[in-house]
Write a sequence for this structure.
């Protein structure tokens, strides 16, 4: 841990609200581990594992993130994609880079100094993870949601990050969030072009970034040059509670019931949390519906699922 390290993240911590998006600045753009040669080396170490996820840039905002790699395959090797990203017409994700000790140390160097600021309003940080995105010019990251809070840090190139309010049920329904948390399915997280008008758009370059709360819908478009981005994600007591309530709501829906929206009824939320906690304690991630490993395991770092 590096609690005494100088902060690499600059945010308006007084205005920080864990459930609202916010812009930020960072000092990682020149970090050696985030330069192309080191990312090629990391990609080679991850070759043949579940740490790699890639597709070609014919995918649009409307592509289902669960199926995008199958429907829009990138047939280049890891090294060819990363070394030739300018012409590769591809998008590549190096997943769960915290599995590599060197990158785990980098994640801690960023999050440890930020942790006191975060925990002042959102206690219980755990399940840290790192995700490195490398994308060709004019590539779209399809519309989707994530199951953790995240700090998206732009390293090279420019991109537009479209983010919607985490509570905007018109853009992402309560049903979609229930299914996502309980089964990690994105089938009901669907794109409509009219959504653009409701988004907050962050135009980010090196040294800039965005804080995004759990299940904030988002979509990304790269600019005229290749893009390198690192996202640092984590869970907290509140995200765990929120996700577990959605897990229980999904189970109730599949039994024909119609629970109120998470957050709309405090007593029902407490009962949902208690029910999900009991179910997950009994069955772990093998519960029905299955739960995210972050709900069954309060580990310091995320499990590569």
């Amino acid at each position: 841990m590096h609690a005494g390290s100088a902060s690499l993240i600059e945010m308006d911590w007084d205005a920080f609200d864990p459930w609202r998006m916010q812009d930020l600045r960072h000092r990682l753009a020149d970090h050696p581990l985030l330069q192309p040669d080191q990312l090629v080396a990391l990609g080679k170490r991850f070759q043949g594992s579940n740490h790699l996820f890639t597709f070609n840039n014919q995918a649009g905002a409307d592509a289902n993130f669960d199926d995008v790699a199958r429907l829009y395959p990138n047939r280049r090797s890891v090294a060819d994609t990363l070394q030739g990203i300018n012409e590769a017409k591809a998008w590549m994700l190096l997943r769960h880079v915290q599995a590599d000790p060197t990158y785990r140390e980098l994640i801690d160097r960023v999050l440890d100094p930020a942790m006191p600021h975060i925990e002042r309003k959102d206690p219980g940080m755990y399940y840290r993870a790192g995700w490195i995105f490398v994308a060709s010019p004019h590539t779209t990251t399809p519309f989707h949601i994530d199951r953790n809070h995240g700090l998206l840090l732009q390293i090279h190139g420019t991109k537009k990050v479209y983010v919607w309010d985490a509570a905007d049920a018109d853009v992402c329904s309560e049903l979609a969030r229930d299914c996502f948390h309980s089964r990690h399915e994105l089938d009901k997280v669907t794109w409509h072009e009219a959504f653009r008008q409701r988004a907050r758009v962050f135009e980010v370059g090196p040294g800039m970034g965005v804080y995004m709360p759990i299940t904030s819908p988002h979509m990304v478009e790269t600019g005229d040059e290749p893009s390198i981005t690192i996202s640092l994600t984590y869970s907290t007591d509140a995200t765990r509670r929120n996700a577990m309530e959605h897990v229980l709501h999904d189970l109730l829906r599949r039994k024909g019931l119609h629970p109120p929206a998470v957050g709309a009824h405090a007593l029902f939320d407490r009962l949902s949390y208690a029910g999900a906690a009991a179910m997950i304690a009994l069955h772990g991630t093998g519960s029905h519906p299955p739960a995210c490993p972050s709900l069954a395991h309060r580990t310091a770092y995320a499990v590569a699922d």
Notes: DSSP finds nine helices and twelve strands in the chain. Residues 101-121 form the longest helix (21 residues). Residues 238-296 form one domain. The mean pLDDT is 93.
